[in-house]
């Protein structure tokens, strides 16, 4: 149900920007599923469109680097684009896959790394004792 408020004088803006959207639902579901998958080794069965399908984790790593717990991998489930995930002390770090197969992060935005592990290590080097800010919270 939509709440009736005036925002920027546009009712259409409110309809477009309120409530649960498919994007928010899928983002939340992927984040929750990715946490569950990265926490396991190997594969996890997930319910996709009423049936069970295998989701696998590739390039998985889990280690302590300079006193920080880093872990992640590439979550690949049928019907969904592979998701690159990096966590630093259980805080999700925003990762972007480049066209050449390298990755960059929101912390080291203008550097490319050959693996998720080296990207995570570089982010720890840059952050020091700080925590990564969730994507969408800060703006350039």
From TrEMBL:
InterPro entries linked: GriE/MELC1_sf, MelC1, TAT_signal
GO MF entries: copper ion binding
Pfam name, any one: MelC1
Recorded superkingdom: Bacteria
PROSITE patterns assigned to the protein according to its UniProt record, in alphabetical order: TAT (PS51318)
Biological process, per Gene Ontology: melanin biosynthetic process
Family: Belongs to the melC1 family.
Name the record gives this protein: Tyrosinase co-factor MelC1
């Amino acid at each position: 149900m939509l709440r009736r408020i005036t925002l920027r004088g546009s009712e259409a803006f409110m309809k477009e920007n309120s409530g649960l959207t498919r994007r928010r639902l899928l983002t939340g579901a992927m984040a929750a599923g990715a946490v569950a998958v990265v926490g396991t080794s190997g594969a996890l069965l997930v319910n996709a469109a009423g049936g069970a399908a295998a989701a696998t984790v590739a390039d998985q790593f889990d280690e302590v680097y300079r006193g920080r717990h880093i872990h992640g991998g590439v979550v690949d489930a049928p019907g969904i684009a592979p998701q690159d995930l990096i966590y630093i002390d259980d805080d999700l770090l925003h990762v972007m896959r480049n066209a050449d197969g390298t990755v960059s992060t929101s912390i080291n935005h203008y550097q490319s790394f050959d693996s998720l592990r080296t990207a995570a290590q570089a982010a720890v080097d840059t952050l020091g004792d700080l925590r990564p800010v969730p994507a969408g919270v800060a703006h350039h």
